[in-house]
Amino acid sequence: MGGANGGYGANKYSRVDYAGGQHHAQQTAGAQYYPSQQGGAMNESYLVKKYRPEKPYRSIEAFARYTKVHRMLDATYVRVPYGGTGEKPYVFATRINHSDLSWGRGKTRDSAIDAAIRAAFYLVQAHGYTDFPMDDDCLTQEPTPAAMMPPPPLPPGIPPSLPAGKQTVSNFHLIS
User: Fold this and answer.
1) Which class is domain 33-139?
2) In angstroms, what CA-CA distances link 112 with 4, 68, 105?
3) Per residue in 22-42, pLDDT tens?
4) Which of 35, 84, 145, 147 is the most exposed place for a label (fewest CB within 10 A)?
5) Where are the domains of the chain?
6) What is the share, in percent, of the chain residues with pLDDT greater than 90?
7) How far apart are the C-alpha atoms of 29 and 24, rounded to whole Å?
């Protein structure tokens, strides 16, 4: 399915944007990448009007129609680098007019986008779009980044620091 034959997953209008402003055609991935602010990593971004899922999702098709009818020409699906779980690592947001409206989590890119769309329809209470159920993967508030990882263990031979309140000053001389 998909690929160069024009079926689901094919997107001949995709491109890669680099920090230098150069545009390169990318026929197979179907993504627009924009450099992030951290270390030049690339973030996935898909225009709603040009996005083609790997398999048909009724919510994705309905959201494309909704954004077209309401002239939301800049609507995009944007991958969020945090908020995923081990079971569902993909997190996408629906972005309209440079503002994230809703977020979704899923096992695949398409299922995360589907969850984000269902959350968006829930938020806007669009007439005729009430048959898309909410679940735990449909997020109406931005997910928070995971707690920071604990620091790596100390190398052998270095004593661990004492807990707060138990500091000793036995090796220090007070000068008065």
Assistant:
1) alpha beta
2) 24, 21, 4
3) 333 333 344 444 444 443 344
4) 147
5) 33-139
6) 46
7) 12
